[in-house]
Design goal:
The complex is a heterodimer of chains A (286) and B (326).
Chain A: H1 3-16, H2 20-27, H3 61-65, H4 69-100, H5 108-118, H6 120-125, H7 130-150, H8 158-164, H9 167-176, E1 183-189, E2 198-204, E3 208-213, E4 221-226, E5 230-237, E6 244-251, H10 281-285
Antiparallel strand pairs in A: 1-2, 1-5, 2-3, 3-4, 5-6
Chain B: E1 3-8, H1 15-30, E2 35-42, H2 44-47, H3 52-57, H4 60-68, H5 71-88, E3 95-104, H6 113-118, E4 128-133, H7 136-143, E5 157-158, H8 173-180, E6 185-189, H9 200-214, E7 222-225, H10 237-246, H11 251-274, E8 275-276, E9 280-282, H12 290-295, E10 299-301, E11 304-308, H13 311-325
Classes of the chains: A alpha+beta (286), B alpha/beta (326).
């Protein structure tokens, strides 16, 4: 080594950095081939968790600041998915309790009564049964509301009342009205697994109906039905004892709005190329 | 499934002309057609209502001709004959639909005809609404969105007069793409290839080539149908494919022009009648007519579809079943 390099190492480089051997490489006249440093691993997107500690009133602060439609969508997704997961988990717990005590072969209302008397903690977590919702939400609340909106008298003869009505006005009102508490049934869809499922609507979100399904064997469970590429049937009883019913179809692709946003909405006709499943598929193959 | 959405309704309603129409329908059944629309054509003389100033410029003969013709009674006779035809072909595989085509020369002459044809308060509504532009102004009716042009969303099909040259206008990519993006289909009528009068078979080839060129080879846009006024001019599936092959189309387009594209235009027209802006529809099935629904046990009152249940009988029968199980 020369004198000059010693001088540089001892006096100049040692002051700028603690380990002078790293800096020595820069002084080296030859080109050093070194492997490129590894890319840092991808940062995973944060999972938002609903905790009372990290936020006020169960809502994250930074999400509240951006008061967008997208953000509200994200929050409802979080809340609903956590609600459905916990309720479905507790249904499994309750069914285990029933099988252990040999009560699962009882009739349906007796199963709920048994849980209410003996296992109160589990019973509070389980969603309400289909029959009580059918009585309280559908029969006592939704039907009087919709008959009032369409101006149909259920006490009179149904033919006389229907002749007075204008059909196009009725359809316009139905497109605006609220579907929470209504009983719906899937009639046609691209997803064949959905066919024939029916239930009472708990929540009418932008892209889904959240529904309680009737289960005669076990306990009733919550299901999510997508609106896209499905058609729902609504049957509206107009006379006593539900002898005569009106039939309507909801086309899910065109109703992708929340019920509160639907009020001032002007619907328009669109291209029909995504609605081809509405026609019977048997036509196309023959 | 095969569709033929253009069978012209005779201008003069006689026994002979109606017999000709029935003959065409019988031949269509033998050729395995399932969905057929019967077409009523309206020329500008039929719907034009001139103002006072315009009447002063016209001669007396023209005014007399205008006053003699009555549109309402003419449409009523059409719907009467259509109901009679529906009853005759009730038990066969054929499904009949109504259709109207409006010839447009000048959009200012239209007035309120589209509102009258499409109004929900009207008794009889057409399943399909088509437009036949006679000049370039008539075609621009579809592309404009102001004033009366806002009714252009209610149109399903655009047709052309294939027997004559398009006088004075030339189709462009830009205008046709704007029309077809909204779901409006473009129609080709093949019956004029058998007509040798005035060299119309040659004009057909020229015109149809021009339509196919600007519609991107008609894969998702074109439909083919016969405008046949005689039963001899109707052809089956294989003969139509040879015509399309002659026009320079490929084999994957044949079935689309006969099956999927016309069905989608039928669905568009049928949803306009039976639903509110494609959101909520009445009835059990959109494509079913009222007479078909009554056969299946449903009741139709003022457009509403009513189903009758026998729930009371079922609930009475349930308790004894439960006792048997125990």
């Amino acid at each position: 080594m020369n004198e000059t390099t010693n001088f540089i190492r001892e006096n100049l480089l040692s002051k700028s950095k603690s380990n002078p051997s790293e800096l020595e490489e820069r002084v080296n006249p030859y080109l050093v081939v070194a492997p490129i440093a590894k890319k840092s691993a991808k940062i995973k997107p944060k999972k938002y968790v609903l905790d009372s500690k990290s936020s006020k009133n169960g809502v994250l602060k930074h999400l509240l600041a951006q008061n967008n439609y997208r953000m509200t969508n994200k929050l409802t997704k979080l809340y609903l998915s956590s609600f459905i997961k916990t309720s479905n988990h507790s249904i499994r717990e309750a069914q285990d309790v029933l099988t252990k005590n040999d009560k699962i072969k009882l009739e349906k209302h007796k199963r709920y009564e048994y849980l209410k008397k003996e296992k109160e903690e589990i019973f509070k977590k389980i969603p309400v049964s289909y029959e009580t919702l059918y009585q309280k939400m559908f029969k006592e609340m939704w039907i009087p509301y919709i008959l009032d909106a369409l101006k149909i008298d259920s006490s009179q003869d149904y033919k006389e009342t229907l002749i007075k009505l204008n059909m196009n006005v009725c359809l316009n009102k139905l497109s605006i009205c609220d579907f929470n508490g209504c009983r719906i049934k899937v009639i046609k869809s691209e997803n064949l697994g959905y066919l024939g499922k029916e239930g009472i609507v708990l929540w009418d979100s932008q892209k889904t109906f959240i529904v309680i399904e009737n289960n005669s064997v076990g306990l009733d469970s919550i299901k999510i039905l997508n609106k896209s590429k499905t058609i729902f049937e609504v049957r509206l009883p107009i006379s006593k004892n539900a002898k005569h019913e009106l039939i309507f179809h909801i086309i899910g692709d065109r109703l992708m709005y929340r019920s509160s946003d639907r009020v001032g909405k002007k619907f328009k006709n669109k291209n029909v190329k995504d609605l081809m499943y509405y026609i019977n598929a048997n036509y196309l193959f023959n | 499934m095969q569709c033929d959405l253009n069978i012209p309704f005779p201008k003069d309603v006689n026994k002979e002309s109606l017999n000709k129409l029935e003959l065409i329908l019988h031949t269509l059944i033998e050729l395995n057609y399932t969905h057929v629309a019967i077409n009523k054509q309206l020329s500008p003389k039929m719907y034009y209502i001139p103002s006072k100033k315009q009447k002063q410029q016209m001669s007396q003969k023209e005014i007399q001709d205008l006053e003699e013709f009555d549109l309402k009674s003419d449409l009523e006779t059409y719907f009467k004959q259509f109901e009679l035809l529906e009853e005759k072909f009730k038990h066969k595989q054929l499904k009949l639909f109504t259709r109207v085509t409006v010839e447009i020369d000048d959009p200012n002459q239209l007035g309120s005809i589209f509102i009258n044809l499409n109004s929900p308060s009207a008794k009889n509504r057409f399943d399909l609404v088509a437009i036949l532009p006679l000049s370039e102004k008539g075609l621009s009716f579809l592309t404009n969105n102001n004033g009366s042009g806002s009714n252009s969303t209610n149109v399903d099909i655009v047709t052309f007069d294939y027997n004559n040259y398009f006088n004075g206008f030339h189709l462009k990519h830009k205008t046709m793409n704007g029309i077809t993006r909204r779901g409006i289909k473009v129609e080709i009528l093949y019956s004029s290839i058998f007509n040798t009068m005035n060299q119309s078979n040659l004009k057909f080839i020229n015109n149809s080539k021009q339509v196919i060129r600007c519609c991107r080879k008609g894969i998702k846009t074109c439909i083919i149908s016969s405008g046949a006024s005689q039963n001899v001019h109707v052809r089956g599936k294989i003969a139509i494919e040879s015509i399309l092959d002659f026009l320079g189309l490929k084999a994957d387009v044949y079935s689309r022009m006969l099956k999927e594209n016309p069905i989608s235009s039928l669905l568009n027209g049928r949803l306009r009648v039976k639903s509110y802006q494609q959101t909520i529809a009445t009835g059990f099935d959109v494509m079913m007519k009222d007479s078909e629904l009554e056969q299946k046990g449903y009741e139709v009152v003022n457009g509403f579809v009513v189903a009758t249940n026998n729930i009371n009988k079922d609930t009475e029968q349930e308790p004894p079943n439960k006792k048997l199980k125990k």
